Known about the structure:
The protein has 20 helices and twelve strands. The protein is of the alpha/beta class. The chain is about 45% helix and about 15% strand.
Amino acid sequence: xxxxDRKREMSTLEKEYNRENSFVVLYGRRRTGKTTLIxxxxxxxxxxxxxxxxxxxxxxxxxxxNQLAEHFKDEFLKKIEINDWDTVFDYxxxxxxxxxxxxxxxxxxxxxxMNKGFSSIFQRIYDEKISDKNIMVILCGSLISMMYSxxxxxxxxLYGRRRxxxxxxxxxxxxxxxxxxxxxxxELIEFYxxxxxxxxxILEFDRNKSPLWNIExxxxxxxNFLYSEPKFLLQEEINDLSRYFSILNSIALGxxxxxxxxxxxxxxxxxxxxxxxxxIDLDIxxxxxxxxxxxxxxxxxxxxxxxxxxxxxxxxxxxxxxxxEIENLSYPLEKVKNExxxxxxKIYEDLARETVLNNSEIPFPIKKLGRWWxxxxxxxxxxxxxxxxxxxxxxxxxxxxxxxxxxSLKEKSKSVKWNNSSRxxxxxxFSKEGFSDGLINLSKKDKTIILSDFK
Length: 455
């Protein structure tokens, strides 16, 4: 599989490599391709890569030492015993001399987990032995909470050392065509609606089969890692899985307000706010408010699962595990098939919203973008400029969008209270199947109407 995307991240790494000395922190949730990015970056460079694990510290030191012996072809080093990190790093520095070198410690947080003082130890080693050498240090980790506490936070001993930090995000949809051969935009959107830009999930799918085939044979397959992925993804970050899972399942079922989550679970808000805050910190949940409101406006806030796969899993795997465990797939599959178009339509809205920012037909810079809703109505896309506003509607249906959709959007736009007396209004429509002739003709005459089939 060829290396896909990550141009910005690779550019940052190369820029740091060209400094005489650099310290980079690379972090992000599991499966986003951090290790693949690192290996692509160092493949043509003098480098040493160490992958930390959960063994005790003495075993980690010994493994680090033995990998150094392999790297520098030093049989004598293999035979001697070393019990401290200082000696290991003294050897490392003596071997590389003045040449440019990249040192990578992957899953750095496990070293901190095995020794609570390791961040302080590494900070001292870095300051005394590495910081004045021609060395690029990359610390990589996937336990976001620990990477914050041990490396990034103000209270961390390593605070202030990093020259750059990269939070690796999922692959953008625009690169999906590079993973799949001969797939239409519609099919790519369907795959994206489940895998959500996580390279490991994309590669696990049989890309010659349909999304529904993959759901049945991969996600609903107990022997496939995807079946239990959220448990492994979250169990190292959090302790009470059952409470977190109940909250995520409730949100996946449509209980997106704090009050409705509490009502569904039979709990008061004080019982779950800390859990929700933790899920937001872990980049699993996000809080949305109408785009014309401030995020601090908690009363109108809705909670959304950010990751498409987690959202899918809590919607169609977690609630039906009693069926899936005994391999009775018929009911869960029927549920997915009946709701799949509706499922994809929600993701289509997210993708359409992203494209608005780069749409050259929109004649003003968008400073704030999101959804808008009140007690009675919802608008898929609202973008705000200085005194301009654009309203958008997305239709994932099997028929062309006509004038009635535009008229309905214009009517709903009247409810949006923002610079009402002087604003300049624009309207953008997205459609899977294109637009009626009447709507196309009107858009040619009226430049405030923008059409995007996004096929």
